[in-house]
Amino acid sequence: MLVANSDNLATFVDLKLESMSDSSRPLNFLEHIIEEDLKNGFPQRALRFRFPPEPNGYLHIGHASSICLNFGLGLRYNAPVNLRFDDTNPDKEEQEFVDAIKRDVEWLGYKWDTERYASDYFQQLYDWALVLIKNGKAYVDSQSAEEMAAQKGTPTEPGVESPFRNRSVAENLELFQDMKMGKFQEGKHALRAKIDMSSSNMLMRDPIMYRVLHKAHHRTNTDWCIYPMYDWTHGESDYIEQVSHSLCTLEFAMHRELYDWFLNQVVETNKVRPKQREFARRNLSHTVVSKRKLARLVEEGIVDSWDDPRMPTISGLRRRGYSPEAIRNFADTIGIGKRDNLIDVSLLEFQVRDHLNKVAPRVMGVLDPLKVVITNYPDGEEWLDAENNPGNEDAGYRKVPFSKEIYIEKADFKEEANKKFFRLKLGGEVRLKNAYIIKAESCTKDKDGNIIEVQCTYDPKSKSGSGSEESLRKVKGTLHWVSVSHAVEAEVRLYDRLFTDESPDTHKEKDFMEFVNPSSLEVITGYLEPSLKKAQIGDQVQFQRMGYFCVDPDTTATKLVFNRTVGLRDSWAKISSKQ
């Protein structure tokens, strides 16, 4: 049987990456900035970009957009892209997160030029900090964090200078070196840049450059007792790597002035000076992307793990069955903007459907079974031809077994129904996909009045594809089915949106957890055609009339587990229209 997995998607990935570097595509505003720089004499060979995640959690769909932006620019301009880990906070960073981030970037189809770490530059950053102290541009402050915060002032009122702001260079050097040697407790001292306590930009009011932390780092272990702050580290790391354009989300717009001030202290003639520019976040509806809030979902057992298929993490989307092609298409569709906005998750789901429709084989699986006995069908079985994907001529055919007893969906039968019900009803006919036309003659109920079996007859001359006049007879309904004696049992996990509200974390009076969807997961037993016995972890298929599904990593040699990736239609659209 043809299956859709990472190997089958390789061709599609290559085609997409080629299209992303196509110079005929309209430019976004960041590309206009780059084009203007090139027009003004910046050499194209000096272009370099970077994706700089902090390894303190798993990447999510928001990071995917940034990944696609930076690596997409690399493809467009044939420029290198660094993968740099901003690992300056040993409290929260782990090698596990580093490995997960690398795995996610590679899965999305990208290759980085060099793998870098901010921790690679700890010595250089320290040496530069010494230069700032010697030049009177930095000082050691011995106040508590609370005292420093209180002296920052407000957006309309200037801050108050620290009583330690005018320490001598010699005293500052000695204290800073002792901080590095681990002679002080955490919080005892901090190194601050000496800029302007009356600046209208509060980030310029003597920001902290270093703090004392007696924590082991995942790469440098206990070599350092001081760690640089993000604002000091980020721009200098860009400069060391000769990144030409440092692209950040809008919340860093106010940081640009500080980014440039720090660069002014170290830049040399004839070296590339990084340029920071900002773009808008594209927030996704019906989810949260704050790492703190995602961690809470895991810790409180709302989801099973960071890669739970309901999570917006890239690893969660991968496990659910989303393809890298769909995520890249989504990022390309929403584009790059200058204002934050909310993107409906249905657009992402559309891209998933659109891609899987092209590559996913069609199979039959019954998720809520009702037994049908075809009374005039002979004992035994026959194997019928079934098309793997009608949209792909090269997908070929497979054999599916047909027998006297089959399963159909309970919802596909009613004793009595109006003329708009085009499925099976007493006295009515339907076609079984790839098989015969059947007619419902009677049904059996249990003591509570529930229908447990339907008795039908079939037209032996109506076999699909036989070319007979009866096979061409039109009936209004076509049902999927599975032979009872050949059915493969599988655990099927029906995933839905994790939150009922489109913006669960924007309500001031309510906790976002109040909007958790209690029906985000339903676990059932499905009955599948036998071709799926050999399905492998990650394989993607369409259960005809039911949706797209993939094989979960929990699958074993004796137990198949399928995740619903997405339904064939947007079921939430109907809900929204009624509200």
Structure report:
- There is one protein chain.
- The chain has 14 helices and 29 strands.
- The protein has a 7-stranded mixed sheet with strand order 12-27-28-29-25-26-13, covered by helices on one side. It has a 7-stranded mixed sheet with strand order 23-20-21-22-14-17-24, with no helix packed on it. Strands 4-5-6-7 form a 4-stranded antiparallel sheet.
- It is of the alpha/beta class and 579 residues long.
- Helices cover 27% and strands 23% of the residues.
Question: What is this structure's SSE topology?
Answer:
Elements: H1 6-20, H2 29-39, E1 49-51, H3 61-77, E2 81-85, H4 95-107, E3 115-117, H5 122-134, E4 138-141, H6 145-150, H7 169-180, E5 190-193, E6 208-212, E7 226-228, H8 230-241, E8 245-249, H9 256-264, E9 275-279, E10 282-284, H10 291-299, H11 314-320, H12 324-334, E11 341-343, H13 345-359, E12 362-363, E13 365-366, E14 369-374, E15 381-387, E16 397-403, E17 405-409, E18 413-414, E19 424-425, E20 429-432, E21 437-445, E22 451-458, E23 478-479, E24 482-483, E25 488-495, E26 521-528, E27 540-543, E28 547-551, E29 560-566, H14 571-578
Parallel strand pairs: 1-2, 2-3, 8-9, 10-11, 12-27, 14-22, 18-19, 20-23, 25-29
Antiparallel strand pairs: 4-5, 5-6, 6-7, 13-26, 14-17, 15-16, 17-24, 20-21, 21-22, 25-26, 27-28, 28-29
